[in-house]
Amino acid sequence: MTVFGTRPEGVKMAPIVKEMERREEIESIICITAQHREMLDQVLNLFEIEPDYDLNIFKHGQTLTEITTKALEGLEKVIIDEKPDVLLVQGDTTTVFAGALAAFYQRVKIGHVEAGLRSGNLYSPYPEEANRKLTGILTDYHFAPTEKNRQNLLKEDYPEEKIFITGNTVIDALKYAVKEDYTFDIPLLNKLDYKEKKVILLTSHRRENLGQPMENIFTAIRDIVVKHEDVEVVFPIHLNPKVRDIANRILSGNKRIHLLDPLDYEPFTNLMAKAYIVVTDSGGLQEEAPSLGKPVLVVREETERPEGIEAGTAELVGTSYNKIFDELDLLLSNRDEYNKMANAVNPYGDGKASERIVDIILENWNL
């Protein structure tokens, strides 16, 4: 059984679901919590996945407690009815922790896809760092994307024979979604001159960045656009009204800053493939952008994905105005510095992670 509830989980679980569909030895049961609703539905449509169970727990203004309790109660019934041999969860959302806990209560083995990520700060990212650590305690099979993730788990005394390096399934998903001749439904994105202009793709939504940190990020972006006449910014704004208020106050009114509603996964990844630089506080984009050869400036104080930093394809710039402005200014002004990041080796895998994960499951059942 695969359990997922948000768009990022859906994107990274979809290649595994498709791989399991190809294997005669596996009966695949798909259960979604719909912690996100519309954004998750977009992914299901793109990858042509039809869930067997849809808990549909989403409601506006939902709290972490509501998500946890609704998911736990709904999943308990499904697990009791289906009695899966293994339950797979992916990543670090509240659905992931609730899924692992529900499986544990029914003595069902748990496979954690994207195991071993650690920022070292329990409250950053919040609540994801806690979710991934709590899930790890309950997990039987840790599918770690990288060697560093494996080392994190070994430091926490998880059994070596239960940790498997697989690469990250997001690379598998990107190979499916990004197309050379892609046409956007939004006319503006087709009209942008990606060859002559330097398009910055901006995303920012983390709870810990709300307030002054986010104001610093957006102000630095605005001032960079004023300084560099060949720069355009595309910002698909998160639905969180607090993010939207700050973005509209600081970034609206400039003809080269384009504020959009959130994009579906397919147009978003194709926009990223055409962009010049990515500025983000997202976790997943730190993996996706390097695989497309895009420098990433990470506007956070810590990251659980240090591999990109160490490889040189991403830089952790924090949330101070001066640091963000200076690093962007350097990449936009100095082609050598840009090329160093753009040409760095992607550390997150080769697009075969899903195949490896399914093989490991079958090997453990001697199939």
TrEMBL record:
Molecular function GO labels: UDP-N-acetylglucosamine 2-epimerase activity
Keyword entries, A-Z: Isomerase
Top-level taxonomic group: Bacteria
Primary enzyme class: isomerase
InterPro entries in the record: UDP_GlcNAc_Epimerase_2_dom (IPR003331), WecB-like (IPR029767)
Domain called UDP-N-acetylglucosamine 2-epimerase: residue spans: 18-361
Pfam families: Epimerase_2
Enzyme Commission number(s) of this protein: 5.1.3.14
Family: Belongs to the UDP-N-acetylglucosamine 2-epimerase family.
PANTHER family from the UniProt entry: UDP-N-ACETYLGLUCOSAMINE 2-EPIMERASE
Protein name: UDP-N-acetylglucosamine 2-epimerase (non-hydrolyzing)
Species for this entry: Tissierella simiarum
Lineage: Bacteria, Bacillati, Bacillota, Tissierellia, Tissierellales
Gene: wecB
